[in-house]
Write a structure and sequence with these properties.
metal-binding; single chain; two-stranded antiparallel sheet; 47% helix; TPR repeat; Znf_RING/FYVE/PHD; elongated; alpha+beta; 8 strands; zinc; TPR_rpt
């Protein structure tokens, strides 16, 4: 078995200090509402909506809080307190989605806006507050929080420094700035101690040496895979937000920049290449997992990949060996099943909205030795399962081949009768004699045969665990 790296230790989130420092503000009640430029009835309605939003926020019902704040802003546009609270609610949702584990998504998939969109909405509200009232440090803190969730760390630092110009003694701003500098320099610290180079050769998305660098029309350089992942959530440059009409996967690598990096930093570039090959699953013992259903060897299936975490996984697979593992939730334990099936992607069609249409076919069975989360989806180290081999020439082997030959004749007769009875191509598409394995490979043939009938997921999972081919017939 090829050696596989242990999952990397998690890095502390730079947004943690902001989340702890920021809370929803109370909307004030003013006795003389006309001084606020509003009719008393309208002001009371705004106050009531703001109070409901604050209660929802305290109960961590952030979507509901945003709804109340948005209704209040329709009645009182540009109110800095309500905008501030809505910006904070958007950021809290974004952080919650980013910190959500793969296991949570498997048991309770979510729909709605992705974390990047929520962070962009938070940033928009924060910038609007600064344009209205730039004399308070709070909007700068909100802006920095949103920028960190967008992974724009340099811009977040500039926002905090701008806030310190407004209030140089702000302990909250100083703490958040220190926390940001500490967390965003963890990965770069060891490297800078070993190599003396400028940030010109560093990807601003992953904070590592550029690998397969691409330079956008607006002049910014990123790792090709980093830009591809960023564009899962939008077609804008991560640095300047210019709309990009490019496809990162087919966009040409900057040959000159790549050659300079390889010539001047050969050891670190070799580390980056090794890391990239691991992430694209070039090996056979490290398996990305798609948690959905039980698939058997020889079974074909169409898949619609729409979740951002699985879009990233599919792109990495297509840059590697075109294979992934499919597993299901074991109904007996309520957790991911211990066995699954490797599938090969026969067809991959990217759709305009970012989804992928896949056609896959089951190939080999495996048992999960250990698994971990990686960028929101599961990765596992596996061992391959095979039926117990019966010695050539033995009585058991002869009986198994004879059993497989008999089953093969019955299967051929069944398929011929099915074709005569049902002429609709869609109904008979999977009843293909040409794809039927020969009985000389009883294990593979037995799984092909099982796919002719409909079984419950629990029964299919039991078949994956079997080690005696004779039990499949």
């Amino acid at each position: 078995m090829n050696p596989t790296p242990s999952p990397p230790p998690p890095m502390a989130s730079p947004g943690a200090a902001f989340s702890a420092a920021l809370a929803a503000e109370d909307f004030p009640w003013v006795e003389n509402q006309e001084e606020m430029g509003m009719a008393p009835d309208k002001y009371r309605e705004v106050f009531d909506l703001a109070q409901r939003g604050a209660r929802a926020f305290r109960d961590r019902r952030f979507d509901e809080a945003i709804s109340y704040y948005s209704k209040a802003l329709n009645l009182r546009p540009g109110d800095p307190i309500i905008l501030s609270n809505r910006s904070l609610a958007f950021s809290r949702i974004s952080q919650r989605l980013r910190e959500r584990s793969a296991a949570d998504s498997e048991y309770q998939p979510l729909n709605g806006l992705d974390p990047t969109t929520h962070a962009e909405l938070a940033l928009k509200d924060a910038e609007k507050i600064i344009s209205i009232n730039s004399n308070s440090p709070r909007p700068y803190l909100l802006k920095a929080y949103a920028l960190i969730l967008l992974e724009h760390y340099h811009e977040a630092r500039e926002a905090l420094l701008a806030g310190l110009q407004v209030d140089p003694l702000s302990h909250v701003l100083q703490t958040c700035l220190s926390d940001l500098d500490r967390n965003t320099n963890i990965a770069a610290g060891a490297r800078r101690a070993r190599l003396d180079r400028t940030d010109d050769f560093e990807c601003t998305l992953c904070f590592k040496l550029l690998y397969e660098p691409v330079t956008t029309p607006c002049g910014h350089s990123f790792c090709r895979s980093c830009l591809h992942q960023s564009m899962d959530h939008g077609n804008k440059c991560p640095m300047c937000r210019t709309v990009l009409f490019i496809g990162p996967r087919t966009y040409p690598i900057s040959v000159t920049l790549s050659n300079i990096i390889q010539r001047n930093f050969p050891e670190e570039y070799a580390e980056r290449r090794s890391e990239h090959e691991t992430m694209t699953y070039a090996g056979v013992d490290l398996m990305p997992l798609f948690v959905m259903d039980v698939v058997l060897p020889c079974q074909k299936m169409a898949l619609n990949i729409f979740e951002p975490r699985y879009r990233l996984m599919v792109r990495r697979i297509m840059e590697g060996n075109h294979r992934m593992g499919m597993v299901a939730i074991d109904s007996a334990t309520g957790t991911v099943a211990d066995c699954g099936c490797e599938v090969e992607i026969l067809e991959c069609e990217p759709l305009p909205d970012g989804r992928f249409y896949l056609e896959v076919e089951g190939s080999r069975r495996f048992r999960i030795l250990r698994s971990w989360d990686q960028d929101g989806y599961r990765v596992a180290e596996v061992e391959w399962l095979q039926d117990i081999h019966l010695p050539e020439g033995s009585q058991e082997r002869r009986e198994l081949i004879e059993l497989a030959n008999g089953a093969s004749e019955l299967a051929r007769a069944y398929i011929r009768r099915a074709r005569e009875t049902v002429r609709t191509a869609r109904r008979t598409r999977h009843l293909d004699l040409e794809s039927m394995p020969g009985p000389q490979d009883p294990e593979k043939f037995s799984f092909w045969l099982v796919n002719l009938i409909s079984l419950r997921p629990s029964d299919r999972l039991d078949l994956l665990r079997l080690r005696d081919t004779r039990e499949n017939f």
